[in-house]
């Protein structure tokens, strides 16, 4: 009987010590929870800044350009009575030679003159002048081409030479205008 009482007391003490350990762990967690604000907003941290909620950021719409905007009419020649249009694929960095009736992007090239072509897509016909894309607009340049143009248009000059800044050339002004239009489109203006 004495043995049974001793075993019962040991079991009771053992369960109380487990409960006591759990209570101590909960107390220590609660103690550290009080200091959570210091971890988030430490005044001595260099990376301290306002807390921004990720959910509050709005997703920007992705602009998917038409394939016609990457195809620019660079020149037209007449060879043996047939016209050939030279169309630059600014995205693929290649030049296409198209004749009347050839397909390009999502349409067909029709009616040539020495300074323009007609591009037909579905039921819509667009007159494309030299230097324009197949939509009749200014076209788009990929970032790699913009970097090439910016590097080529900034010559290395002598820092000792005193020269007046000149107005940008016609090509440079065109590039700057395209860049500004592209930036406005990206900003949704």
Question: What is this entry, summarized?
Answer:
The protein has 189 residues and is of the alpha+beta class.
Radius of gyration over all CA atoms, rounded: 36 Å
Supply the helix-strand structural class: alpha+beta
Series of H and E elements: HHEEEEEEEHH
Largest sheet strand order: 4-5-6-7
Largest sheet: 4 strands, antiparallel
Give the DSSP E fraction (strand runs of 2 or more residues).
15-25%
CATH architecture of the domain at 70-152: Roll
Number of helices: 4
How does the overall form come out from the CA principal axes?
elongated
Round the mean pLDDT to the nearest integer and report it.
76
CATH class identity of the domain at 70-152: Mainly Beta
**Low-confidence parts, pLDDT < 50 over ≥5 residues?**
none
Proportion of residues in helical segments? 25-40%
Strands, total number: 7
Question: What is the terminal separation in angstroms?
Answer: 91 Å
List the helices and strands and how they pair.
Blueprint: H1 2-34, H2 36-40, E1 71-79, E2 82-89, E3 94-98, E4 103-104, E5 107-112, E6 116-121, E7 124-129, H3 143-152, H4 170-187
Task: Walk me through what this model shows.
This protein is of the alpha+beta class and 189 residues long. It has a domain of 83 residues: Roll (SH3 type barrels), CATH 2.30.30.830. The protein contains four helices and seven strands; from the N terminus they run ααβββββββαα. The longest helix has 33 residues. The mean pLDDT is 76.
């Amino acid at each position: 009987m004495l043995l049974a009482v001793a075993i019962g007391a040991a079991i009771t003490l053992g369960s109380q010590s487990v409960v006591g350990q759990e209570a101590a762990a909960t107390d220590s967690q609660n103690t550290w929870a009080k200091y959570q604000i210091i971890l988030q907003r430490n005044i001595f941290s260099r990376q301290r800044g306002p807390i921004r909620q990720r959910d509050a950021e709005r997703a920007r719409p992705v602009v998917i350009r038409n394939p016609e905007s990457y195809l620019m009419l660079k020149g037209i020649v007449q060879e043996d009575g047939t016209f050939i249009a030279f169309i630059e694929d600014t995205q693929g960095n290649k030049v296409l030679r198209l004749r009347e009736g050839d397909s390009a992007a999502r349409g067909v090239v029709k009616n040539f003159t020495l300074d323009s072509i007609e591009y037909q897509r579905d039921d819509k016909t667009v007159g494309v002048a030299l230097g324009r894309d197949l939509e009749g607009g200014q076209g788009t340049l990929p970032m790699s081409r913009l970097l090439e143009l910016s590097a080529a248009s900034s010559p290395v000059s002598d820092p000792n030479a005193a020269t007046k800044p000149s107005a940008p050339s016609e090509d440079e002004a065109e590039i700057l205008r395209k860049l500004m239009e592209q930036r406005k489109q990206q900003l949704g203006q």
